[in-house]
Design goal:
Layout: H1 2-31, H2 52-57, H3 59-63, H4 68-72, H5 80-88, H6 93-106, H7 121-174, H8 179-211, H9 226-247, H10 262-277, H11 298-303, H12 305-308, H13 313-317, H14 323-349, H15 354-386, H16 391-394, H17 402-422, H18 436-456, H19 484-491, H20 493-515, H21 519-528, H22 533-544, H23 551-562, H24 567-574, H25 591-616, H26 620-628, H27 633-658, H28 666-671, H29 677-680, H30 683-692, H31 700-729
Helix pairs in contact: 1-7, 1-9, 6-7, 7-8, 8-9, 10-14, 10-17, 14-15, 15-17, 19-20, 20-25, 21-25, 22-25, 25-27, 27-31, 30-31
Length: 734
C-alpha cells in the first residue's frame, strides 16, 4: 500500500514537472518572435519589433535602423561640409566610407609635408582642410568599424541562441516518446538550456563594444534587456528537465518509440505558432506602409479591409496609390489566414486513424502552400508601392516578417509531405475516426481558443502599468517606471480617498444584488407554476425583453417617465399637486437603491431562464409522489423545487461573489449627472473616467493598476467562496 502511494506521488510529481518544462520551453520559443525580448537589440535606434529570429536570419532588417548615416548627423564635429556629406551619403557603412574617402582624395593634391610659411593663403587653407578631413576620416572610420563589429557580433550570437533554442525544441520532441526516449530528450533539453544561457553572455560584450563608439557617434546603446528573460527561463527549463531525468526511470526491455513522429510534432507546433502569430500585430507582414496602424494584425488585415486601410484613406482618395495595390495586399492576407487556419484544422484531425491522417496531411499541404504563395502577393504589393511616384507620401515599410512566414510554412509543408508518405495506406473499409478522449478535446478546443484570445491574451495589456505611458505613444517612447503606479494610491491622499469612495459604492451596489440574488429563482418558480401557457409565454417574454434593451434606451425611457417634463411630472402638475415639474433623476438620495431597482427590472427575466431550465430537469416522479402523499402546490415548491434549485443557486452565488467588483459601467455612466456623481461612481466607471473620460489626464497606467487589482481580488474571492461552499455543502464548482 505504501509503495502504491509513493508511485502515485511520483506520478503526479512527474506530470507536474513535465507540463511545467513544456510550458517554459514554449515560452522560450515564443520569446524568439517578440521584439522586446530580443537580446540582440543593443541600441535604441534599432526597431523594437525586430525579434531574435529576424536578427539571426535577416541581417539587413536587423541593421536597417542603425545605419551610420543616421548617427553621423549627430556628430560633435562643427564642420558643416562633413554634416552635408553625412546627409547625402548612401545607406550603408561602405557608402559612407567611399564618399568620405573621395572627399579626402579630392584635396590630397596639396603637399602635406611642407609648412604654411611659403604658401599662399589659398594653399594654406587647403592644407588645413585636408588635415581636418583626414583627422575626421580616421575618427569616423574607427567609430563606424566599431559599430559594424558590434552589430556583426550580435548577429552571430543571435544565430547561436536560435540554434540552442532549436536544440531544446528537439529535446521536447523526444520527450513525447516512451520513458527511455524521454530520458534522452531531457538530456537534450538540459544541453540546449545550458547553451541558451551561455549564448547570452556575449551580448553584453557587443553592447560594450557599441558603447565605445560614443566618442564619435551617438548610437544610443542600451543594455540588452532580453538577457534576463532568456537566462531565467533557460535555468528553469534546465532544472525541470534535470529533475525529470533523475525521477523518471525506463522499464527494462522497453524500446525507444515515439508516440508521434517528429514530423507530426513539428507541423503541429508550427501550426500553433502560426495561429498565434495571426493575432500579433508586430508579426504582420501585410503592414507594408507606415500609414497602416501598427496595431493591425494579419488576421485583421485579412478579414477587415476597412480596418486595414483606415489610415490610408487620404492616400487612396487623392490617388497617390491605386486602391488595387491595397486590394492585392488584403486578398493576400485573407488567403494567408485561410491557409494557416487550414493547417490548424489539419493538425487537429491528424490525431485520428490513418485515413483521417491522409485528409489531415492534404489539408496541411494545401493550407501551407496557399499561405506560402500569398506571401508573394504581399511582397508584390510592397514593390508596387516602392515604384509609385508618391512613394515618400506613402512611406513604404518592408514586409520583414515574410521570410519568417515562408520558412515556417515551408517546414510545415515538408513535414506534411513526409508524414503523408510515411503514413500507412488506410484499409478500403476503414472510416475516419478519432479516439473518444481526443474527440472530446477537439470539441472543446474552439472554446479554449476563444477563451485564450478574449480572456487571456488581453492580459498582455497589463504591461502598461509599468510605464509612464501617454495615449498615442508606443511603449518604446515611454520610460519604464517599475512599481511607481502601484505605490500611487498609498502616496496620494486624494487618490486614496477616491478609491475608497468608489469601492464603497461598488460593494454597496453589488451587495444589494447579491442579497437579492434569490429573486430570479423565486420568479422562475412562480412562473413555472402558471398553468396557462399563453399567459406564461407573455409574462416570460415581457420580462426577458428588457435585458436586450441598451442602457441608453433605458435612460431615455426613464427620462420620459421621471424627467422634468416626463409623465409623472406632467401628471402631478396637471393635478395641481406640484407647482412645477421636477427631475426625479437628479439628486443622490437613495441612488444605490434606484440603481438596484433598474438593474433588477432589466435583468430579472433573463436571470430566471437558468432556473427555468433547472426546473425542467427535475424528475417529475418526485411531484407525482408528493401529490399521492397529499402535498399541495406550495408544499411541492418548498420541499421539492427549492432544494433541487439550490445547487444552481449556489453556483451562481459563488460567481456573483467573485465578480463583486465587476458590476459594469454602462448603467452608471448614463444615469450619472453632477448631482449624483460621488455615490454612483463604481470601480469600472472610475477606471474608464480615469483613462478616457472628459477632462481626464489619460492616466492609463494607473487605471491599468486598478484593473489588475480588481481582477486579482475577483480570483481570490472565487477560490474563497468555492472553498466555503465545499466546507459547508460538500460540493463546489471545482
Amino acid at each position: 500500500m505504501l509503495e502504491d502511494k509513493k508511485n502515485d506521488v511520483k506520478s503526479i510529481l512527474t506530470t507536474i514537472l513535465s507540463y511545467a518544462s513544456k510550458l517554459t520551453l514554449i515560452l522560450l520559443f515564443v520569446f524568439m518572435f517578440i521584439g522586446r525580448m530580443n537580446p540582440a537589440r543593443i541600441s535604441k535606434v534599432m526597431n523594437t519589433n525586430v525579434s531574435l529570429v529576424k536578427s539571426a536570419l535577416y541581417f539587413k532588417g536587423y541593421t536597417s535602423d542603425l545605419v551610420a548615416l543616421q548617427n553621423a548627423k549627430k556628430t560633435e564635429s562643427s564642420n558643416s561640409e562633413l554634416e552635408n556629406l553625412a546627409e547625402t551619403s548612401g545607406d550603408s557603412f561602405d557608402d559612407y566610407y567611399s564618399n568620405f574617402a573621395a572627399m579626402v582624395a579630392d584635396t590630397s593634391a596639396y603637399d602635406m609635408v611642407g609648412g604654411f610659411e611659403d604658401d599662399d593663403e589659398e594653399t594654406a587653407s587647403g592644407k588645413i582642410q585636408v588635415r581636418s578631413y583626414k583627422k575626421e576620416w580616421a575618427a569616423f572610420k574607427a567609430a563606424h568599424s566599431q559599430i559594424a563589429n558590434a552589430v556583426e557580433k550580435a548577429h552571430k550570437y543571435s544565430i547561436f541562441t536560435l540554434a540552442a533554442i532549436l536544440i531544446c525544441v528537439i529535446g521536447l520532441y523526444l520527450s513525447c516518446g516512451t520513458n527511455k526516449i524521454r530520458k534522452i530528450g531531457y538530456l537534450v533539453i538540459c544541453a540546449g538550456a545550458v547553451l541558451v544561457s551561455l549564448s547570452m553572455i556575449p551580448y553584453s560584450y557587443a553592447y560594450d563594444l557599441l558603447a565605445g563608439s560614443l566618442d564619435s557617434l551617438e548610437v544610443s546603446p542600451i543594455p540588452p534587456s532580453g538577457i534576463s528573460g532568456f537566462i531565467s527561463f533557460s535555468i528553469i527549463t534546465f532544472v525541470l528537465a534535470l529533475a525529470l531525468f533523475v525521477i523518471e526511470k525506463a522499464p527494462e526491455g522497453q524500446k525507444s518509440e515515439l508516440k508521434a513522429t517528429p514530423f507530426q510534432v513539428t507541423y503541429r507546433l508550427l501550426a500553433l505558432l502560426l495561429f498565434i502569430l495571426l493575432f500579433i500585430p508586430g508579426a504582420n507582414p501585410a503592414r507594408i506602409s507606415l500609414n497602416i496602424s501598427r496595431n493591425v494584425s494579419l488576421f485583421t488585415s485579412g478579414f477587415s479591409y476597412g480596418t486595414y486601410v483606415r489610415n490610408m484613406e487620404r492616400i487612396l482618395v487623392r490617388g497617390w496609390l491605386p486602391s488595387s495595390v491595397m486590394r492585392i495586399a488584403y486578398f493576400s492576407s485573407l488567403l494567408a489566414c485561410l491557409g494557416i487556419i487550414a493547417c490548424g484544422i489539419g493538425s487537429c484531425i491528424s490525431v485520428g486513424n490513418n485515413k483521417l491522417k491522409r485528409y489531415a496531411h492534404i489539408s496541411i499541404f494545401a493550407g501551407s502552400a496557399l499561405s506560402f504563395v500569398s506571401m508573394f502577393g504581399i511582397v508584390h504589393a510592397y514593390n508596387l508601392i516602392t515604384s509609385s511616384e508618391n512613394v515618400e507620401r506613402i512611406e513604404p515599410l518592408e514586409p520583414s516578417t515574410v521570410p519568417m512566414y515562408c520558412i515556417l510554412l515551408a517546414l510545415i509543408c515538408i513535414c506534411a509531405v513526409i508524414s503523408f508518405i510515411k503514413t500507412p495506406a488506410p484499409e478500403k473499409d476503414e472510416k475516419p475516426a478519432i479516439e473518444a478522449p481526443l474527440q472530446l478535446f477537439l470539441m472543446i478546443l474552439p472554446f479554449l481558443i476563444l477563451v485564450f484570445i478574449f480572456a487571456y491574451l488581453p492580459l498582455w495589456g497589463w504591461r502598461y502599468a509599468f510605464f509612464d505611458y501617454n495615449a498615442g505613444d508606443t511603449l518604446s517612447m515611454d520610460a519604464w517606471v517599475g512599481w511607481k503606479w502601484f505605490k500611487a494610491p498609498f502616496e496620494n491622499a486624494a487618490t486614496r480617498n477616491d478609491i475608497i469612495r468608489v469601492l464603497r459604492n461598488t460593494l454597496a451596489m453589488s451587495g444589494l444584488g447579491i442579497a437579492t440574488s434569490w429573486l430570479p429563482m423565486i420568479f422562475a418558480i412562480f412562473l413555472s407554476e402558471i398553468k396557462n401557457q399563453t399567459s406564461k409565454k407573455i409574462i416570460q417574454t415581457l420580462t426577458t425583453i428588457p435585458n436586450f434593451i441598451s442602457w441608453v434606451l433605458v435612460y431615455a425611457i426613464a427620462f420620459c417617465i421621471f424627467g422634468t417634463e416626463g409623465f409623472i411630472s406632467s401628471l402631478m402638475v396637471n393635478s395641481g399637486l406640484w407647482e412645477r415639474g421636477k427631475n426625479m433623476l437628479m439628486g443622490d438620495s437613495f441612488i444605490w437603491v434606484k440603481m438596484w431597482l433598474w438593474g433588477t427590472w432589466k435583468g430579472l427575466g433573463w436571470s430566471a431562464i437558468m432556473y427555468i431550465a433547472a426546473i425542467s430537469g427535475i424528475d417529475q416522479q418526485l411531484y407525482e409522489a408528493a401529490t399521492v402523499d397529499g402535498a399541495g402546490r406550495f408544499q411541492k415548491m418548498w420541499h421539492i423545487t427549492l432544494p433541487e434549485l439550490f445547487p444552481t443557486y449556489i453556483v451562481l452565488l459563488i460567481l456573483s461573489v467573485s465578480n463583486i467588483l465587476s458590476n459594469g459601467m454602462d448603467q452608471y455612466l448614463v444615469f450619472k449627472n453632477p448631482t449624483n456623481k460621488n455615490p454612483i461612481e463604481v470601480l469600472d466607471l472610475y477606471v474608464y473616467q480615469l483613462s478616457f473620460g472628459q477632462g481626464s489626464n489619460n492616466n492609463i497606467p494607473f487605471s491599468t493598476v486598478v484593473s489588475m487589482f480588481k481582477s486579482l481580488v475577483s480570483v481570490v474571492l472565487l477560490f474563497i467562496t468555492n472553498r466555503v461552499s465545499k466546507l459547508i455543502r460538500g460540493s463546489s464548482i471545482f
